[in-house]
Amino acid sequence: MAAVSDPDDSLLFVDSLREYVLEPLISAESLAAREHTELTAERDAFAALRERVEAIEPVQTVTTQSPSWSMPSSGSTACAEVRTAYRETVMAVDHYDEVYDEPLLQNVTAELSPDIGGALDPGSGVQFSPQVKRLVLASVEDCVERRTALCEVVERELDALADQKRALTSLLDELDGCTIPEWYGESFDEELTAVLSARQQHLQHGLQQFEGTEFCSYLYGDEGWTHPVLTAVARLREAVVTDESA
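and the corresponding structure tokens:
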């Protein structure tokens, strides 16, 4: 589209520009895909834990001052079975050491509740009563549901990123240098604005319980940017100038 003195230099510029502009989107897709893989593994692990806990017989208890955490009328290894099940499911996902790297009881406390973490502590004296079992199963089910919902949100994010990357790629395909003729400038800007508008719509309406900014910080907080589409559009606008003489 733009006149250039050396076609090879122009091609090199466009290739470099494409890489520069699309880098945040490509990185975002990779991060979102990884998050989806990890969430899916965790969801399945908690579902497996739920099945293991359901199969563990609770201990018959006697009344105490703390009915929620009753003491046993006889010895039991049921809490040890729960700890083993947790270790062999939730803590067995491939990314556990890299992402969490926590001892069992610390992770139980964070994922299920401080009460459950305390109950499963071998030194607590608490046994796996029917009430404890119900509380554990309810918390485990909540973990499954949270990750199921998050998986759906990340899937929508991946679809949105793919759409916006295609739109920007189409614009980049129209370039043959760093300048565009004046007659194309308005249309070019309108198309970039349309990409931003689509992104804003997604952040406002496509993320369910998340605020758009909160979601982007959660997913992309370790990068130098938290808004990949905005970053890509800004890079393209910054690199391309309008030739008013064309």
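(Above: one complete record from the training split.) Residues 1-5, 66-75 have pLDDT under 50 and may be disordered.
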